[in-house]
Amino acid sequence: MTEIFGIPTQALFGQLLIGLINGSFYALLSLGLAVIFGLLNIINFAHGAQYMLGAFVAYLLLSKLGINYWWALLITPLVVGASGMVIERLMLSKLYKLDHLYGLLLTFGLALIIQGVFRNIYGSSGEPYQIPDALQGGQNLGFMFLPNYRAWIIVASLITCLSTWYVIERTKLGAYLRAATENPQLVQAFGVNVPRMITLTYGFGVGLAALAGVMAAPVYQVSPQMGADLIIVVFAVVVIGGMGSILGAITTGFALGLIEGLTKVFYPEASSTVIFIIMVIVLLVRPAGLFGTQK
């Protein structure tokens, strides 16, 4: 059996694949957080619960209505994103003139409520969600076996992330969004409905979390705790990349997933803490994050 640095090739690439899959979810979730914070200045602690909601909506669509995975990919982000827009209009819009801490506390409370409701209904054990038939099986690459569904997650996440970055950084719509955060009165004078734009932006960020939840459902069991287990790591990813940095969220998400995978191979004891160690080092050297702007 071929070895690299004394590690069997199949084991090494297998862990890199797992790291890349984790990185895909880190990137999608941290992208949603970065969109919401960068454009709206809201620290959305309910993001993990909204990720969990995405997985549960996909599960309920399949089990109750017979709606398959592919339709769930389209419907779920719209449904959960719409619920996010209701939250923004009824609750978060009242807090924009206050300190960021108030928004964090509100969304943290919402996360606990959402998780508590689903835990009371479904318990702590997870619900299975089957991989769609079109993505069953895998490819033998010689040095490792690549499951089709895992490859789909990586490609879909990368396309979604890069498309979002392009829209926000390279289009007129993105320019309006960025301008609305800096000078909403000026943008309003050009006939743009800024409150509606803010609501749609928050809904879009929440929709990204829901999309990640749908893609995670066949990989992990659909559980009320799945968001709580992930959100702390995702916040660390966002801090490392730079709060509000779209490119930072994407790049750091994928990179830290790979680093985590490599750590599991060479030093498994540190795999659960390596991201937080990197976060501490980055904060000491560059407090604004790797891609953040110093103020």
How would you describe this protein?
- Helix content is 71%, strand content 3%.
- It is mainly alpha-helical.
- The protein has one domain (3-285): ABC transporter involved in vitamin B12 uptake, BtuC, CATH 1.10.3470.
- The termini are far apart.
Features:
11 helices, 295 residues, 3% strand, mainly alpha, two-stranded antiparallel ribbon
Span between N and C termini?
Answer: 53 Å
- Beta-strand percentage? under 5%
H-E string: EEHHHHEEHHHHHHH
Indicate the percent of residues in helices.
over 70%
CATH structural fold name: ABC transporter involved in vitamin B12 uptake, BtuC
Average pLDDT reading: 89
How many H/I helical runs? Answer: 11
Task: Give me the secondary-structure topology.
Layout: E1 3-4, E2 7-8, H1 9-40, H2 47-65, H3 69-90, H4 100-122, E3 138-140, E4 145-147, H5 148-170, H6 172-182, H7 184-189, H8 194-216, H9 226-241, H10 246-266, H11 274-285
Antiparallel strand pairs: 1-2, 3-4
Helix pairs in contact: 1-5, 1-8, 1-9, 1-10, 2-3, 2-4, 2-8, 2-9, 3-8, 5-6, 9-10, 9-11
Structure at a glance:
By secondary structure, this protein is mostly helical. It is built from eleven helices and four strands, in the order ββααααββααααααα.
